[in-house]
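Quiz preparation item.
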């Protein structure tokens, strides 16, 4: 029996999205694929307000996170971390055999523009990585302010993970001038997992060509050469690209401003509900995510038990991630969720919470 997913990824997928994946298979070297590829990448450029290429990678986000450092770190990378995904990126960078340093903020706190400025001022780095929306903690770092600082360091590649924010909050790449901006589609896009979209700047594409040992599967030059023909280097997950095509059309029908407003409204509802139950909010004020909210567990709630009770009712809920598991819980409010989905969850939890309390 399937459960309704109230976990922050993979998120609940709408039936119409699943149905879009059932379109007949085509070959990726057929004209039909080029038409699909072009339509999807054009819509992504509209979403991100960029005229630079947006590529489709058949991998989860970590594939492109690894690819980005392999393509763009020639000297040394500064990895900024304030949670599990951003810290893992440092590990990934080192495991690729690259020189890298970790700059950490407390979990629950954002990466600040001052932190970035202080680290990069040493002149030691030619690339940096940052996670816009730390899904492990529910913190959204101030990307526009970080982007302003990055304008002082044009020699440092600006590599950004927007896995759980892209399409839920405005990302204007022509203003942010990121070198890589990537997102796996199983979070804010509301698709099944297996596909990652990523925008790469002209500057980064030119730099990548001069980087040794960047491998094949995530070689940016391969992506660029194939994209010029509306294609991908190797066989893509065509069914998921059908679903992305469908989802992008739905976004444009909803209207991007309406979509962003829906996410703001759901974030507000969730924060209010969590506080009304007597829980604290884990993320620092002013940096709370628009796509998921982390509550702080009080001393009274057995989150493992709550999760089990919810599961018996057909719902998957979250009891925290990494080192803050069971100390926090996360409520996602992204992708196709509406305020009604949250009311459904809150009603259930109000019934179950007394049974999970000592
Ligand atoms: C989920 C997530 C990832 C990891 O994505 P995979 O698709 O599992 O590789 C990376 N970064 C963030 C911010 C995430 O939320």
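Solution:
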């Amino acid at each position: 029996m399937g459960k309704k997913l109230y976990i922050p990824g993979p998120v609940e997928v709408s039936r119409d999205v699943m149905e879009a994946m059932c379109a007949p298979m085509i070959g990726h070297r057929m004209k039909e694929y080029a038409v699909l590829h072009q339509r999807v990448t054009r819509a992504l450029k509209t979403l991100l307000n960029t005229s630079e290429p947006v590529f489709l990678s058949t991998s989860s986000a970590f594939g492109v996170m690894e690819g980005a450092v392999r393509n763009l770190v020639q000297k040394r990378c500064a990895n900024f971390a304030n949670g599990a995904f951003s810290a893992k990126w440092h590990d990934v960078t080192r495991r690729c055999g690259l020189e890298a340093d970790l700059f950490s903020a407390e979990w629950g706190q954002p990466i600040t523009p001052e932190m970035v400025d202080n680290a990069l001022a040493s002149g030691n780095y030619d690339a940096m990585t940052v996670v816009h929306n730390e899904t492990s903690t529910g913190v959204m770092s101030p990307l526009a302010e970080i982007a302003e600082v990055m304008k002082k360091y044009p020699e440092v590649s600006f590599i950004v993970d927007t896995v759980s924010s892209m399409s839920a909050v405005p990302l204007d790449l022509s203003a942010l001038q990121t070198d890589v901006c990537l997102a796996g589609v199983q979070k804010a896009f509301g698709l099944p997992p297996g596909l990652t979209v990523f925008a790469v700047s002209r500057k980064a594409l030119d730099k990548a060509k001069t980087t040794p040992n960047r491998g094949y599967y995530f070689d940016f030059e391969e992506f660029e050469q194939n994209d010029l023909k509306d294609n991908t280097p190797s066989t893509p997950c065509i069914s998921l690209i059908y679903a992305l095509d469908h989802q992008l059309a739905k976004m444009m029908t909803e209207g991007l401003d309406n979509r962003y407003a829906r996410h703001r409204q759901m974030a507000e509802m969730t924060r209010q509900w969590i506080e009304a139950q007597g829980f604290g909010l884990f993320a620092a004020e002013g940096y709370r995510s628009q796509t998921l909210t982390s509550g702080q567990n009080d001393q009274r709630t057995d989150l493992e038990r709550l999760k089990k009770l919810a599961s018996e009712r057909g719902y998957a809920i979250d009891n925290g991630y990494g080192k803050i598991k069971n100390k926090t819980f996360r409520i996602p409010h992204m992708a196709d969720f509406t305020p009604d989905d949250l009311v459904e969850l809150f009603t259930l939890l109000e019934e179950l919470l007394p049974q999970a309390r000592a």
